[in-house]
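Hi there, hope your week has been kind to you so far. No rush at all, and the record is pasted right below.
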Amino acid sequence: MKIINTCDKIKTTFVNGFDIDLWRKYASEISKELPLKCENDAKEYDFEKDVLPVLKNALNEEKIDFVSRNFQAVVDTLNANLTKLFDKEPDINIILYLGLCNGAGWATTLDGKDTVLLGIEKITELDWGDETNMRALILHEIGHLWHKMYGNLHIPEYTKRRKGIAQLYCEGVAMVCEHILCGDNEFYHQDKDGWLSWCYENENDIKKEYLRRLDEKTSVQDFFGDWCSYNGHSDVGYFLGCRFIEHLMKSHSLKEIAKMKYMFLNKAFTEYAKMPDIIFEYLNKNDFPDVSSVVFDILADNMEKIAPTGNSREDDFNCWYDGVSDGLKRDERQIILIKDSECIIGFFQYYTNTDTFMMEEIQLKHEYQGKSVFRSLYGFLLENINDSIKFVEAYANKGNLKSIGILEHLGLIRIGMNKNGNSFHFRGDYSDLVNWYKSE
């Protein structure tokens, strides 16, 4: 890995301000390819209006020195983090330079070598020159290069839908790589003035709007770029892309995701965008009103107590998730009756074998869904399940998006389907269920 810091050259070249001819000479000394590469990328900009003011603002010795110091602090410790993703030290260049507003970070190829270009003018404009933001920026661009080395970074973009899926996918993978390398899954260098909180709170609307634009073949540019915004917030696509890749990682490794093709990604995102926002609709920890009157009774195998009138249970309860297990030896079958003031409001059916807890069916009256009943039920289970249980399994009908969302939120991973092909099979560690309960 080669590190090139041109800050001293910038200060001596542009003593009297910016000049395009001087810039071309400066850039060509970094690489013969660089001047034309930058000018072609910037040709759609109004140079006098959009580019020159940013360059003039950046050509300040104090600002240049500030960015340079933090750049050096980051690259000096970079190798220690790269082993989290790369099998060996990557053969790349990282260059801090003065561009033509081509981006704060640009993962590209220069002289046949994978290169990260860091534009000091955009870094200064966006106020990303401190060490924390500089590290995140560099790691994000390295994430793009990792994607190129290990998978399918460049998806052909000959339709607006393909372009929208490709951009979301590529930026999402890079964001996940950034999180892995910096060791913080909640860090976004875009997070200023409540940006991340707003994204989480509006996640459901964001993904549905993105899908709507894909379906209607309109631009998704509002979601990307500091010069654009969606509902007053820029770079929302980075958040959405990251959340989409995190969703895929519940059933695929990152290296598998890096090689995914457009057809699979398009289908996967469509399904993901249509999935209800379970975290906020059902499990929001700030939406747990008092339901202290609800109690849980463990019954024998006696379904008559649930529907004593003989009516179909489906007439009275709404199913959250259901399914039939394949081949699980049912050593113990139990039903938990859920009551409120002695009125039956739902039930939970499960089986256990030596080390596995199978969540077979939850049904709950509509007016109790989304309240603290769900969380209270799991608190009850943790107190009553055999200590030998190590794994949790469940099935959810392919069309039951609520069920799928809940099981994924609990940390269960989709591992296959049932024999009939109509339900997804989920599995996870029981300890993860315990941790979920304690964290809520």
Q: What stands out?
A: The domain at 286-439 is CATH 3.40.630.30 (Aminopeptidase). The two ends are 43 Å apart (CA to CA).
